[in-house]
Amino acid sequence: MQFRGQGKPSLGVIFDSDMGSRVETALALAVLYGLDGKNECRVVSISSTRTSLLSAAFCEVVGRFYAGAVSGAFGSFARTLPVGLAADGKIPGDTNLLTGPLNRRSPDGAATYNHGIEKLTDTAEAHALIRNAFTAQHDQNAAVVLAGPPTNLLNVLNLAGAKEVIAAKVKHLVCSTPLAAKDLEAAGWPTPIISVSPSAGTSVLFPVSTLDKEFAAFPAHPVADAFRVFGKDATTGELAAVLYAVRPAEKAFALSEPVGKIRQLMIEPAERGRLLQVYVELATAKPVPRIPRFRPPVVEESKKPEVPPSKP
Fold first, then answer.
1. Are 131 and 3 contacting, i.e. CB atoms less than 8 angstroms apart?
2. Number of structural domains, the chain?
3. Quick one: which of 89, 149, 265, 305 is 20 to 30 A from 50 by CA?
């Protein structure tokens, strides 16, 4: 519900991935929350195409790391956004990028990171969650980041009326792979589609040295723990997808001419060093107090009663 005097909120971002397949997905999610912390966007939906409770649990753990102080989408008592999970079994299993952070223990044996996902019913049905996130946004005030296969988004397209809702609400879809972009175009995705060039990820590498520098400021950081498991510099194509979704005017990015609905996202060579600094700053940003998302409501002053002129 919109009240008089409220401003339009920042961009709502739907983030769908196969969390646990690549460390850059975790780094991309950290970049997204870093942008949320700057009030440049709102994280409004998180979902995974990996049929793994640990995939959903890791997403929730990252959300809890930033919860409350960072996102107005989160409530009190460490509650976070529900995590959508695919149930088709096409990307099964857990990986060490998930088990490493989630199995971390303190010296007394307690889990370092708490979450509330122990069974399938603790997650949300991914395609329904994403559709509901679309409907809750202002027109043309949402963006979608796909960092993995398009399973969940294809299921959304199959819902009655979904294409019309997406066309009304979404500015653009940014896919981390050309294949996913082509699949969604073929299925009738109704908005512009940006496909990240493979070279955009390999030309800028996220340095593992941040574990001993910027990430060292955190006694426990789930994304840093996943990065530590990976143990080497990481590609950044999915980070580019997140950053472009929120900052399409970023001068480090260039777009190809469209082929159908798809344009390819590339990196300006002269901007690679600065772009890496942006990635590191956002991915290692500390949770910060959230400023109000809306302008204070307008309060009209009551009119003074008119005083009739005195009689002579």
1. no
2. 1
3. 265
